[in-house]
Amino acid sequence: MRNDAGYKNIFSGIADELNNIENIGAVAAYIPKLRDVDPNKFGAHLLTIDKQHFCFGDSSEKFSIQSIAKVLSLAMAFELEEDKLWERVGVEPSGISFNSLLQLEAGKGIPRNPLVNAGALVISDILVSRLKDPKRELIEFIKMASGNTEIAYSPAIAESEKLTGFKNAALINLMKSYGNIKNDIDTVLDFYFNLCSIEMNCKELAEAFLFLSADGVNPLNGNRVTSASKAKRINAIMQLCGFYDEAGEFAFKVGLPGKSGVGGGIIAIHPGVYSVAVWSPKLNSKGNSYRGMKILEYLTTRTESSIF
Amino acid sequence: MRNDAGYKNIFSGIADELNNIENIGAVAAYIPKLRDVDPNKFGAHLLTIDKQHFCFGDSSEKFSIQSIAKVLSLAMAFELEEDKLWERVGVEPSGISFNSLLQLEAGKGIPRNPLVNAGALVISDILVSRLKDPKRELIEFIKMASGNTEIAYSPAIAESEKLTGFKNAALINLMKSYGNIKNDIDTVLDFYFNLCSIEMNCKELAEAFLFLSADGVNPLNGNRVTSASKAKRINAIMQLCGFYDEAGEFAFKVGLPGKSGVGGGIIAIHPGVYSVAVWSPKLNSKGNSYRGMKILEYLTTRTESSIF
Amino acid sequence: MRNDAGYKNIFSGIADELNNIENIGAVAAYIPKLRDVDPNKFGAHLLTIDKQHFCFGDSSEKFSIQSIAKVLSLAMAFELEEDKLWERVGVEPSGISFNSLLQLEAGKGIPRNPLVNAGALVISDILVSRLKDPKRELIEFIKMASGNTEIAYSPAIAESEKLTGFKNAALINLMKSYGNIKNDIDTVLDFYFNLCSIEMNCKELAEAFLFLSADGVNPLNGNRVTSASKAKRINAIMQLCGFYDEAGEFAFKVGLPGKSGVGGGIIAIHPGVYSVAVWSPKLNSKGNSYRGMKILEYLTTRTESSIF
Amino acid sequence: MRNDAGYKNIFSGIADELNNIENIGAVAAYIPKLRDVDPNKFGAHLLTIDKQHFCFGDSSEKFSIQSIAKVLSLAMAFELEEDKLWERVGVEPSGISFNSLLQLEAGKGIPRNPLVNAGALVISDILVSRLKDPKRELIEFIKMASGNTEIAYSPAIAESEKLTGFKNAALINLMKSYGNIKNDIDTVLDFYFNLCSIEMNCKELAEAFLFLSADGVNPLNGNRVTSASKAKRINAIMQLCGFYDEAGEFAFKVGLPGKSGVGGGIIAIHPGVYSVAVWSPKLNSKGNSYRGMKILEYLTTRTESSIF
What we know:
Four copies of one chain form a homotetramer. The first copy, chain A, is an alpha+beta fold. Chain A has one domain: Beta-lactamase (3-Layer(aba) Sandwich). Chain A is built from 14 helices and seven strands. In chain A, the strands form two sheets. In chain A, strands 2-1-7-6-5 form a five-stranded antiparallel β-sheet, sandwiched between helices. In chain A, strands 3-4 form a two-stranded antiparallel ribbon. Chains in contact: A-B, A-D, B-C, C-D. At the A-B interface, helix 12 and helix 13 of A face helix 12 and helix 13 of B.
C-alpha cells in the first residue's frame, strides 16, 4: 500500500487517530522559547522520493528542531572526515539517558555515538576544525541539502541554551580532559548551541532529510548530499541511536530510522520510499514526543510497511 | 542486483574474499565441544524467499548455534504471551557486555531485551510455565518453523554448559530475587542450557529463520510461524540487540537484523528478500564471529542492499 | 568522663532520650522470624574492659544478630589465613547498597570487604575449606571468644534465609564464575545462612566482642582471641565498612568502629575502653537500626569521647 | 610507648626503614611544578600536643600540599555553615577514583564527601558566598590555625592547574546543572585552584593540623580553630574519605585519620597525641604517596598505637 491514494487516505485518518491519543507528557521547559510553545500544536508532513507531499495540521509552522539537527552536522562531518570520524566517536546505542557522563568516562572520552550530546559536541569540534566559517558553512550545507534558502539559526534560542547549558559544558570539559576536543571550548559550544537552535516546519524538515531516503541525493533539487553508502550508514546510526534510551521501542513500534528533538519534532526515514516529519511538543519520560511516536506507529501500521 | 545470477556471482567471490581476511580472534573455550572445533571452518548459506539456495564452504556441517536459538524461543513465547511478554522483558539494547548483572540490578530484575542471557532466561521461564513438556514442544516448534525434522538438542553440550554456567545461575537467582522468575531455578536453567545446545548447519539455520524474511510464513512449507507484525518486531529486536555491545557496528557495516552465537554462527535477515547464515568459529573481542561479520559486510556491500 | 559513675548516669538517661526519638523505619520483613519481632523492643548493654556492666531495657532478650556475626567469622578466618586472606577480599568501603553485584563484577569477583554479603560468603568459603566440621567449629570459636557456652544457631532462621536467599545465591554464583569460591555452592550457602542465624542478647553481644576493645584478649576469661594487631585491623574494617552505605554517617555521628545487622542490633567498640551493644528492630532506609544509631550517638556525645 | 624517648628512637630508625622501601610509583606529571620535583625527596615531621617536635630528612623543604588543603577549607566552611553544610555535601566514602563524575550524577549533584574534588568545589563555592575576600580570608584562617604567617598560595601552581583543569571544570559544571553551585564558575574555580596551590613543609603542615589532635585548639598558640565536636567529625571524615579509593587500606595499615595530596604529602592525626606530616613525591596507583604510606605504617607499628 505504498501508492499515493493510500497515503492520502492515511493522512486523512490522522485527525481521528489524534482524538484517541491523550496529549500527555510535558513540554521541555529549560528555556523560554520551548516552554512557551502551545502544547496542543500538531503537525505532520510526508514526502515521497517521487516528490508527492502529504500534510496535516500545523505542518507549516516553524519549531525548534533541536537534536534532529545533529544528523545534518553528522552528514557534513562524515563527508569531510570519511572513516577517520569513527576514531573519535562510536556507533553504539548509549543505553542510558541522553546526557549521562558515566559512559563517556568509561569510554575514556569517546562518546558512544554521534547523536548523543557528547557525540554531537565531538562532531561540532570536527566541523570547527575543518571549516573556515563553521556556522555559515553548516547552514549553507543544510540549504544545499534541502534546497531551501530560508533555513536559519535562532539567535534567541542559541543564547538561551548557552545560559543553561551546564551539562553540555560538563561533557565537553570531560572530553577535553581526555584529549578528544581540539578547539577552544567556548567556540565549540557556541557552534553547538547554534546547531541546536535551527528552526524548521514539518515540510522543511521532511525536505531536508529526503536525501537519506534516496541514496544520498535530494530528488527535489538533484543535489548529491552524501554517497549511497554513507546515507545507509547514517540511517543505521539513527535506527540504533536516534531516540536516547527508547531506540528499541521506536524500532519495535515504528520500525524506521529516525531522530527526535526536545522541541517535540521527529524525523523518520523509509529508505527508498519517503521521509516523514511530525511535531507535537509534549515529551514522554524518555524525552521523545509522545504523540509524535504514536502517529508514526499509526502510519507504519496503516501502511503495513517498515524496514523490518 | 537482487537477482539469482547476482547472488551466484557474489558467492563465488567468497573464496577470494576470505583470502584477504586474516582468521583472527579466539574460539570460545569454556566448554570442550566449542573449544575443540576446527577454527578454520567456514560456511555460508543464503536462501531467498523464492527458495533459491546459494552456499559456500562448510555450510552443511553442524555446529552449536548457541544464542542464535534465543530468537526462536522468543518467537514461540511471543506467540503464546502476546504483548504481556513485554511486562517482563524490555526491547532496548544493553549497551554493555552480554551477561552483565549491572543493568539487571538497575532494572529491578527486568532484563533489557530477550536476546541477552537474562532476557532469554525470562523467556525460558515463560515457556516452562506455558508448556506441558517444554523441551519437547520447543523442538517441535522449531521443526515446524523450519520444516526440518532432524533438528535436536545436544545433551553433551547442555551438560557442559550446566557445569560452567555460574554466571547464568547468578543472573537467574538475581531475577528470582526480584520476582521475575516464576518456576524452579534448576528447571528453567535445564531448559535454557538445552535451548543453547541446539546444533544446525548453515543451510538448516537459513531455513529455520526464513519465516522472518517472509512476513512470518516459511515459504518452504507454507507454515505460518508468527504474524507479519510479530516478524517485523522480532527483526527490530535483532537489529537493536542481536550483537551484544556491537549491535551498532553490525547495523553500520552490514545493515541487516541478525543474531550471533558464541559457536561462531550468525544469522541475518533481509526482510522480503532472503535469510543468510554464516559460520566461522573464531570470535572477536565482543564475542561475535570475526570472519562471519566480515563476509556479511562483503555480501551487503556487493549486493548494494541493506534495510537502510 | 570515662568513670563508672559517668556511664551509670548516662545509662539512666537513655529512657528520657528514647522518649525524644520517634521509633520510625521498618522492621526487616523478608523472613517470618524477623518480621514478627515486636518493633518497640529496645535494649542496650555496655561492658568496660575492667568488666563493669551497664544495661538498659530489653538487654537480656535474644535477637537475631544477623550480619554482626560476619565480624566473628572474619576474626576466625583471619587467624587461620593471616594476610593471604586479603588476596580474596578487599578492605575498602563499598559505597553502595550492601548486596550490589555491580562492584563485584567490576572487581572481577573480589568483594570490596569482608563485611558485605559477598565478602562474608568468601570468608565462609575459606572456613569451609579450612575446617573439618565448619559449623560446629565456628560456634566453638565464638563460645571461646565470648566465654559463653549458650550461643547457638537458630535452625528456623537459617532455613528461612535459605528459602529467600536468591540474591546471596546470585552473589556466590557470580564469584564462583570468577573462581573466587572453591567449595560447593550449597555447602557454603548453608554455612553462611547458619552464621547469619545466630541469636544473642545485648549482654552476650557486648561480651562476645569485648576482645576487640582489649587488644585481642577477652578480659572476662583471659582468652586470646586474636593478636593486638589483628584486633586493630578488624576494628579499622568495621569503621570503614560496618554500616553499608552509611559508614561515613556512623563515623561522623558516633565515632566508633561498629557493625549492624538487619535484626536491628549494633555492636560498637571503643578500643581500650568498652564494647557496647544496642538493639531496636526498626531499620532506617540504609538498613541500619534507626534508634540504635541515635542512642549510640547520644552515648558518645554524653561521654564526650570517640576514637576521633 | 608514647613518650618522647620512644618517638626519638623511632624517628632515628626511619633512615634504615627507607633503605628497605623501594622508591616506586610515579610523580604527578600534569603540571610542571609537580613534574619537576626531585622524586627522591623524603621528609617527616611529628608534633605532639605537648609541643615536642621530631623530624627527619627534607622536612623543612616546601612542597605543594595540594588536596591536603581541602581539610582546612572544610574546617573553615564548617565553622561558618554549621550543620547546614551537610545539605550540600555527604560524608560517605566515594569508593571509586577521586574525580569520577559517575557518583556525582547518581547523587544528583551532591558530592559524596568534602574531600573528593567535587566536594571541595562545593566547599569552595560556600566560602566564595560567605567571605568578602575569599582567597585572602582563607589564607588568614590558615595562618591563624597554624600560627604561621609565612603560608602563601603559589600563583604559578594555581595558574598551571587552571590550564589543565578540565575535569574539575566538568565536575563544577555538572554540579551547577543540578543547582549545587551558587556562584560564577570561574570565580569558584579560581578560588579552588589557589586552595590547591598552597605550599608548606612538613613542619608547617604538622603545625597547621595540630588543632585536629587537640580538640580544636592549636596548643602552639592557644587559638581555638574549631569546636572539639567539629574536630572529631573532621577526623572521622578524613578517616573514611581521605585517601580516595584507598581509605580502607590506610585505616587497615596505618590506623589514623589522614589526608594525602598528589604532591606526595600526607598528614595524619592521632587524636589527643600528635599530628604527623610526611612527604615523598612518588605516588602509588591510587594516587597516594608510596613511601609516605609505608613510613606511617612503620610509625604506628613501632609505637604500637593507632586509634583502633
